[in-house]
Design a protein that fits this description.
CATH architecture of the largest domain: 3-Layer(aba) Sandwich
Mean pLDDT: 90
Structural class: alpha/beta
Distance between the termini: 41 Å
Radius of gyration: 20 Å
Low-confidence stretches: none
Strand order of the largest sheet: 7-6-8-9-5-10-11
CATH topology of the largest domain: Rossmann fold
Order of helices and strands: EHHHHHEEHEEHEHEHEHHEEHEHHHHH
Oligomer: single chain
Strand content: 5-15%
Largest sheet: 7 strands, mixed
Number of domains: 3
Number of strands: 11
């Protein structure tokens, strides 16, 4: 069977307020979000769901479902992103977090890397003052103040450079981001990856905060409170790149095993916090300790935070990260302490 995926660009253009629209026809916004990111394969979706989406977009099923389409990932060198929710090249990324969870630091680190790699980095600066925004601006090559200005720069540059573009969610609510992306699509501009961030933190309480996305990074309050940065939730974050044909089978297998371990570890940790280690059955102690090591390993020192942490920044190649995670899962790191694995790059 040909690989199937939703035409996210078409949905984005024709149904900007997908949250309300989905609810109005009896669809769960979370289900629609998971279909857009690929967490739920299109082939496993109910016919009623797909038909309802086609009706909302006023298109045929052939237009809504793409066959043989491939979504490539951009390797970021940031461990939890590359493992759990790879960055979809040319797609739209939503960062869901409350203020102070480290989302702007993460975006700053990405822009720092992209700028060094020759990407054109652009930010549509929001009105008002927000803590941490200045660090992001420091690694932004072009700061713009309107949608039209953003369009002009992208149109003039797209033929010669890859582009990353960041904007606040306020432009999603007005629909201007969708209008901009539609203009890019009409003109064949595909080498632009868009980051949408909610500086007010309102999207944490919504099921589908940005409409259709290729990548969703959901930040975790517990990880942020424990200073386990980047505080990206390994269970809720997802990407259309995760569908099997887009990743090497080894990557997908390790990702799924890591999620399974961390899901159980989090359940056990809630018991430990209340009743101590004695609350865990002896048969689960190994699972808990490996989950603790993996959670520690997924922390990472950033280049843009060196002045604050005193630790040199680290980028971790994808294959090195996968080898390290596999070693933790298989028990090869059972002799290492949690402290040894915290705030490092690769284990070796």
């Amino acid at each position: 069977m040909d690989h199937l995926k939703l035409n996210v660009s078409l949905l984005r253009q024709r149904v900007p307020n997908l949250t309300s629209a989905a609810k109005s026809v009896g669809l769960r916004p979370a289900t629609v979000s998971n279909l857009c990111t690929g967490k739920i394969p299109v082939g496993r979706a109910e016919v009623r769901t797909i038909a309802a989406l086609a009706s909302l977009a006023k298109c045929s099923l052939d237009e809504l479902i793409l066959r043989g389409e491939r979504v490539d990932m951009i390797e970021t060198g940031i461990k939890p992103l590359d493992l759990f929710a790879p960055l979809a090249k040319g797609g739209t990324v939503g960062l869901v977090a409350r203020p102070g969870m480290g989302q702007l630091v993460l975006l700053s680190e990405l822009f720092h890397h992209f700028k060094q790699e020759g990407y054109l980095t652009i930010i549509l600066k929001p009105e008002g003052e927000y803590p941490g925004l200045q660090e992001l601006l420091d690694d932004t090559e072009r700061i713009v103040y309107s949608i039209e200005e953003a369009y002009s720069i992208v149109a003039d540059t797209s033929a010669s450079r890859e582009i990353v573009f960041a904007a606040d969610r306020e432009h999603v609510l007005t629909g201007k981001i969708y209008d901009l992306q539609e203009r890019f699509q009409e003109e064949g501009i595909t080498q632009i990856t868009t980051f949408l961030v909610d500086l007010k933190g309102a999207v944490v309480d919504e099921d589908l905060p940005y409409g259709p996305l290729e990548t969703l990074w959901y930040f975790d309050a517990d990880l942020a409170a424990r200073q386990m940065f980047p505080a990206v939730n390994p269970l809720y974050s997802t990407s259309s790149v995760l569908e099997g044909v887009h990743l090497e089978q080894n990557h997908l297998s390790i990702q799924q095993r890591a999620q399974k371990l961390l899901r159980r570890y989090r359940e056990l940790r809630s018991l430990v916090q209340v009743r101590g280690m004695q609350a865990i059955p002896a048969s689960e102690t190994e699972v808990y300790e490996r989950g603790e090591r993996l959670e520690a390993y997924l922390t990472q020192p950033f280049f843009v935070a060196e002045a604050y942490t005193g630790l040199p920044g680290e980028r971790v190649p994808l294959q090195d990260m996968l080898q390290d995670v596999q070693a933790i899962l298989n028990g090869s790191m059972d002799h290492r302490t949690v402290r040894d694995l915290t705030w490092i790059g690769t284990i070796k």
